[in-house]
């Protein structure tokens, strides 16, 4: 019995996943760092952060005017982006990522994803009381899914690439590598097996890749 072919196939699969994961992680880390930096820049320049808002105390009557004006304009721009530019006309987040992976469905279109991410930056930068976690998770998934859209022949590893992007986004933005790994494993993939790396066709069999005992 010749076992060299399965070993070569397994080694090739692991190599492809490892190299792709490094690339996805680097790109996502840069994007996530830019995401957080852009929000902080807007907070500082639009008098949203406490330190920048302190400069308005000399003109006490200006503080409420600026706060109301910034939040109103931020909400208006965010609403216009989502309503008129996004194809899905709604913000995207972790539920869309989980649905795409668990049900083996395509991710929403790239344009809607980019618009949703930009809208999140503007909304958070203008002081909206929402968190960075949701937009970052989807942005990481969007980067991971680009390998499939580039048609490089890695469709079988799509779920792993999406999970790599999610883990990288959380790890770099919150300086929490273990939390990013655990979140991607427990929430996005929900099940992981070396069989997937040895035989990529298992991805097309949900009853094997996601056994019944792991379904929720």
TrEMBL record:
The organism's place on the tree of life at top rank: Bacteria
Keywords: Chloride, Chloride channel, Ion channel, Ion transport, Membrane, Transmembrane, Transmembrane helix, Transport
Gene3D superfamilies per UniProt: Clc chloride channel
GO cellular component terms, A-Z: chloride channel complex
Keyword Transport tagged: yes
Topology in the lipid bilayer: Multi-pass membrane protein
Subcellular location: Membrane
InterPro entries: Cl-channel_core (IPR014743), ClC (IPR001807), ClC-type_chloride_channel (IPR050368)
Matches recorded under CDD domains: Voltage_gated_ClC (cd00400)
PANTHER family for this protein: CHLORIDE CHANNEL PROTEIN CLC-E (PTHR43427)
Protein name: Chloride channel protein
